[in-house]
């Protein structure tokens, strides 16, 4: 291994984006952010690092083991490098923008850094983009953010989108209502996580009926909702179920072509969610495109929902766009003409010195066309 | 101070960008990167952190005191958070893209982080954007990057641009040619940095004549170049002078309206530059917009030039653009109509519930217009 190669090695999970991938990722990100913007969401941009105690407070707590720490030489306090922008945006919404009218619609896009990659996400630096809808508690708000994720991804050419909707707090609500003790709760949770219908059926009292019914009520939305409607649930759980049904109904109007599935008992990865939550998939792409759901923002526990999309998986789902063609401008090309060709949509590449064979030079610099006295000429493919 | 306010405090020199500043900064960045792209430069995106020894190698060495360090738990090696993207792009150009044809034109845009702010730049996180032109040593290449910086900034509406061109290595070249000892060199350097013509004039031998002449040859390009042409310089210094003159002449063709000034002996802030360098200003804005110049890239000392722009100062120079108007869509608005209005250029804000007084609701949510059955109606200003 020579030293030139060795020097270019990056830490595991970190990478250089090169042409043309770098411009592709940037244009996908721009497309998402533009979609959020034209739906009335407004951009905020928190810093890459902030005080650890703020970054890892509340909703941010789950990211503590994934967060790099830095000592701030100015304040002598510990800072964290953000591993997730959601807690930062919630902080902004509930502090600096506390006086703004609700609902408050915010979006963000930026890089996050994690101490270690996971099997599903080996990258330690990922671009994250998302929205937060703060101060709206209605099913309409839930449907708006899901439909927005759908529309934003669809605009980029992502097909075969599906959303899996869950109620990560419904199991706890039912357990509490049934007065189950801690061991019994853990048994229920574990059996549901394993989708172990036999273990649930063997449980005593109303547990088997309710949780068995919930476990059955999953899959494609129509079938799952019919099953959910059959269930007799305690009050708090029934309210969650009814919200899910309203949201699914609204989505069938708002997001034509979005496949909706339901998995009411799923809760993993929704540790800080407090109600209806969802995961976005492209059915042809490994891994989830993003996820979101209800949470309580800030010290005043303001009703909020939102989602995050991660560029590593989103990029696998977005078709590459045709790039603009490169036009070689021989040395001495009139600058007004050069400007005109750029305005007409060309990428121009200027010759820095006169060349005898401009076609060869253009091909060497990966230009598809050359500007000549006779107009624009295609470079022959070799 | 209540705890809500206290929690929102960020470390000194770091800040949240809020609406509408966040979208303004992003659109200015996008405008710069688009200008670089249509001039044939291709995007690269290095990671936020990399191994310290690579990040601070060569051209990166000057940033060592400004760079945050992190321990990588995977490799157990130290990493640095980038304080400047230029060394990263030079690394990419000379390692991963070593086999690509020259000249290689690359651009980048991203956030950099610094341990402490300075008096001129109190921000510790700044967005940086720039280009590198690798493998071209001609004055034409110098002129191309300066003219590109000018055109990119002009596209954004920056007026009153000026560039100050200097030759940070010419003083050393002359001192070496004259065989000055270390003390004499330091005396010359110190007098030139103070622009102390009297001290230079008092020096012995040819020193007074040459450096006195260089010190005089500064200011507006026409006058400075006339003075430079009068000077009798040793060979290496004469070559640098001749290049400067060629670049200024080329710029007078390429960048009509760019004010060019010359300060041949300026070298501060150009510690890793190896030839013609420049600083960009808006004459109405405090601080420099960016800077650049010649350097040697990679272990093979490849000829390179480029520039970096910093968003904190660039934003002070760019006029705010008119933002798109916000159109309130009452609850229940047909989704195809909503889509049509967005396509027509509106930002739409959807009502999440029916409202009796849609005009008041629209105004509350900072919409300028409402969609009604009679079409789009302006919200009266209060």
UniProtKB/TrEMBL annotation, chains A, B:
Main location (coarse class): cytoplasm
Recorded GO MF terms: glycosyltransferase activity; histidine-tRNA ligase activity
InterPro entries listed in its UniProt record: aa-tRNA-synth_II, aa-tRNA-synth_II/BPL/LPL, HisRS-like_core, HisRS/HisZ, HisZ
Residues annotated as domain Aminoacyl-transfer RNA synthetases class-II family profile: 32-342
Binding residues annotated for L-histidine, in chain numbering: 84-86, 114, 128, 132, 268
Keyword Cell membrane appears in the UniProt entry: no
Gene3D superfamilies for the chain: Bira Bifunctional Protein, Domain 2
Homology family: Belongs to the class-II aminoacyl-tRNA synthetase family. HisZ subfamily.
UniProt function note: Required for the first step of histidine biosynthesis. May allow the feedback regulation of ATP phosphoribosyltransferase activity by histidine.
Protein name: ATP phosphoribosyltransferase regulatory subunit
Species: Aestuariispira insulae
């Amino acid at each position: 291994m020579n030293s030139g190669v060795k020097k270019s090695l990056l830490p595991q999970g970190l990478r250089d984006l090169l042409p043309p991938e770098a411009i592709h990722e940037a244009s996908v990100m721009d497309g998402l952010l533009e979609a959020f913007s034209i739906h009335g969401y407004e951009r905020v941009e928190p810093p890459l690092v902030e005080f650890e105690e703020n970054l890892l407070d509340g909703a941010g707590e789950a990211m503590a083991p994934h967060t790099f720490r830095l000592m701030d030489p100015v304040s002598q306090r510990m800072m964290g490098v953000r591993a997730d922008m959601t807690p930062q945006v919630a902080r902004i919404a509930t502090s600096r923008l506390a006086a703004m009218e609700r609902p408050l619609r915010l979006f963000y896009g930026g890089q996050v850094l994690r101490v270690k990659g996971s099997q599903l996400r080996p990258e330690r630096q990922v671009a994250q983009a998302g929205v937060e809808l703060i101060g709206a508690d209605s099913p309409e708000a839930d449907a708006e953010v899901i439909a927005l994720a759908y529309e934003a991804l669809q605009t980029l050419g992502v097909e075969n989108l599906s959303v899996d909707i869950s109620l990560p707090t419904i199991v706890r609500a039912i357990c509490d209502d049934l007065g189950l003790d801690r061991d019994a709760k853990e048994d229920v949770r574990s059996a549901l996580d394993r989708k172990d219908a036999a273990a649930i059926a063997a449980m005593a009292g109303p547990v088997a009926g309710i949780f068995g019914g919930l476990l059955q009520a999953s899959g494609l939305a129509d079938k799952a909702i019919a099953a959910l409607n059959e269930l007799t649930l305690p009050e708090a759980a029934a309210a969650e179920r009814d919200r899910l049904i309203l949201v699914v109904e609204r989505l069938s109007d708002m997001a034509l072509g979005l496949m909706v599935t339901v998995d009411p008992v799923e809760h993993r990865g929704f540790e800080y969610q407090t109600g209806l939550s969802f995961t976005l998939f492209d059915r042809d792409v490994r891994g989830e495109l993003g996820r979101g759901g209800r949470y309580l923002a800030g010290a005043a526990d303001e009703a909020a929902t939102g989602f995050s999309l991660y560029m590593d998986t989103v990029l696998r789902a977005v078709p590459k766009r045709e790039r603009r063609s490169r036009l070689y401008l021989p040395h001495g090309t009139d600058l007004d003409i050069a400007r005109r060709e750029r305005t007409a949509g060309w990428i121009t590449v200027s010759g820095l010195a006169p060349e005898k064979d401009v076609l060869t030079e253009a091909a060497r610099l990966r230009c598809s066309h050359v500007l000549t006295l006779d107009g624009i000429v295609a470079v022959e493919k070799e």
